[in-house]
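My hope is that you will study the protein record below before we discuss the fold together.
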Amino acid sequence: MKKNYLLLFFFVIVKFILQYSLISPEYELHRDEYLHLDQANHLAWGYLSVPPVNSWLAWFIKMLGGSIFWVKFFPALFGALTIVAVWKMIDELQGSLYAKILASTGILLSVLLRVNMLFQPTSLEILLWTLIYYTLILYLNSGKVKWLYIAAVIFGTGFLNKYNIVFSVLGIIPAILLTKERKIFTQPHLYSAGLLALIIMSPNLLWQYHNDFPVVYHMKELSERQLVHVDRFDFFKSQLLFFIGSLPVIIAGLYALLFYKPFEKFRSFFWIYTITIVLFVFFRAKDYYAIGLYPVFITFGAVFLSHVFEKGWRKFLKPVFILIPILLFLPLYNLAFPNKSPEYIVSHPEKYKKMGLLRWEDGEDHSLPQDFADMQGWKELSQKVDKEYSLLSGTGRTLVLCDNYGQAGAINYYSRKGVKAVSFNADYINWFDLSKKYDNLIRVKEPSKEDDELKETGPYFESSKAADSIVNKFARERGATVFSFKGAKIDIRTRIRDEIIEVKSRY
């Protein structure tokens, strides 16, 4: 037993070491992280695109000092806990130490290394999907109703973290109905547990109600702008790549759920996988939405293979199946993560281009992968806004208005002048402080013609200029301009209110 937990501790430590070593110091936070971190300054029971749990974590990070170490700590922690959950599931299935090592290696060296790099709700979501399946295994093994209530707490928490977790239950319900385990639906405690989950979810549901259900608008916008472009072939291709080192283990797990006698009571899990994937494909979901499905099937596969490899010549396959994820990970280590400087990538583009990593959402190849470019130029922007803010601070109150949430969030995170930038984009639409009159305006615009902004906004101020711009050649925001407008001739709050009304009318 002691050896078991020493090995588990080893995997957890390696997980943290890998997560902190996968991002080179030349890279800053990703644009999405700035928005999530800024939610700590505007705690609520909901936001336009996500529920509140991540904002609570952001608040905790803020209380710890807000350093990069803590920003990266929680995604890494949730990834490590996913390994722990898999380890415990294998215990419940009476799997061997080999099964634990096989599964943990597959989880460790997988797409989770990418997911757990960023402070977003996805890392916790994957852990919670895994825990829901774990509690289902515990219930099917023991019949103890406490696991139904624990599952309800996990689901309710998951709903407050990311709405995508609803798909886990939409997959479980019909899958259970297809097997003899359907007797669970005659269990009164199941419905009491459902009520408990609803109570946990209710603060966010009430927030949605009082704010005219912005999640509906967000889903509609997501469907029209992004999901409609999801290629179903690419979706399936990604499913193969996410845990490519564990693909034989996953296939073995699905096979075992159908034909391996000791797993007969868990046969519903085969249908859980099938139904959930069908739902994702039908709704044209993004490929990464399904990542939370796989840890439990790696668990089943590892336990099954550990039994298969017990005797005869098959014993020699044991190290082979552990080596597969390691050998497949090594070439990806140098390509799929921002652990090489931008200069290195620019001077060695061949492998990146061959893997399609340089192609952005605009369909064109660029000098860096898009995610890497989204981690450049933010400090520079904040410093330049701070400089202009200082120049204007003696002449009255200054509003900093940005084109997108990445700009606003980055300025608020790095600013040394107490700047509170806002935007008409994302949650920032609700974070304007219009209680006081503004005398000056700093306008951060995405790369565009300077004259357009000066001609449009300049007449409302005594003086205007293009003060500076992002010059970092690797930044996706390269060319974004900082405009300075001094001495407002009108109360600009009126125009801001009109714009806010127009934006909110869309949802």
User: Anything to note?
Assistant: The chain has a mean pLDDT of 92. The two ends are 56 Å apart (CA to CA).
